[in-house]
């Protein structure tokens, strides 16, 4: 039942309530797409909110399942969209965290076979994680006559606009070795694109490999707790002192709930207030983790609250 003891509240807040919440927190974690920007446009007020929070001595982190660009290009995007003072080490993308996972946590002895674009490949390179590079499509080649590398010890699957059938088949062949790790950048099923269209996300590509290989991927991105562990391994962050601001209930809000953070849904992206309320009314342990503590219409509300 809505409002049951211990359940999350899904409360729309503004003004002083936002200010009080933020005053009680030392760390603010922002998702990016649908929260601080929409494509190539900053959500109004987002750059000022980031600057103001930092001026108040808060630590700000950007936690995104979008693995299409390396952090270096995120830095360019932040500055292009008018954000100032953002540091590369504050950006935790699923591509960067996947590289950290493979390097620091999996102690990989061998190369990675990658389904994924530039973002993933550049972060692996930066972290010094060896992977199979420079594959060229040979016309007419099939899975029965293409070469496979003997030192592949992990398959990493992320968003890949150049995915083809042969790559998919190779990934599945490598995973027949039970010792070969299977890692997915993030579980996002799809992403909105212009004109009301959508594109399949990393989660959809991972699902294809999971089905064909009969294996389950280790998921790095939200809602897995790993991205918070990744932040906590580099910064002193107390979950009770932290709030996660996101636009997607199934990833951002569950991530915040899983990691013991306060959670705030902003309505400028994927999920709606009605969806959040519907999860609250169902009131099962699974749906409760998708119910945000707080809801705002937009990050603009945070700016107004901070300036009041
Ligand atoms: Mg988002």
Short précis:
One of its GO terms (molecular function) is metal ion binding. The chain is of the alpha/beta class and 308 residues long. Helix content is 37%, strand content 18%.
Q: How many separate domains make up the residues?
A: 2
In whole angstroms, the N-to-C terminal distance is 35 Å
Give the helices and strands as they follow along the chain. EHEEEHEHEHEHEHEEEHEHEHEHHEH
What's the CATH H-level superfamily name of the largest domain? HAD superfamily/HAD-like
Enumerate the distinct ligands. magnesium ion
pLDDT averaged over residues: 95
Low-confidence stretches: 1-6
Shape designation? globular
Query: Main β-sheet, in a few words?
Result: 7 strands, parallel
The percent range for strand residues is 15-25%
- What is the CATH architecture term of the largest domain? 3-Layer(aba) Sandwich
**Percent range of helical residues:** 25-40%
CATH fold description of the largest domain: Rossmann fold
Total beta-strand segments:
15
Kindly provide the radius of gyration, computed on alpha-carbon positions and rounded to a whole number of angstroms: 20 Å
CATH class of the largest domain: Alpha Beta
> Total helix count?
12
Coarse structural class: alpha/beta
Within the largest sheet, what's the order of strands?
Answer: 1-15-14-13-2-5-6
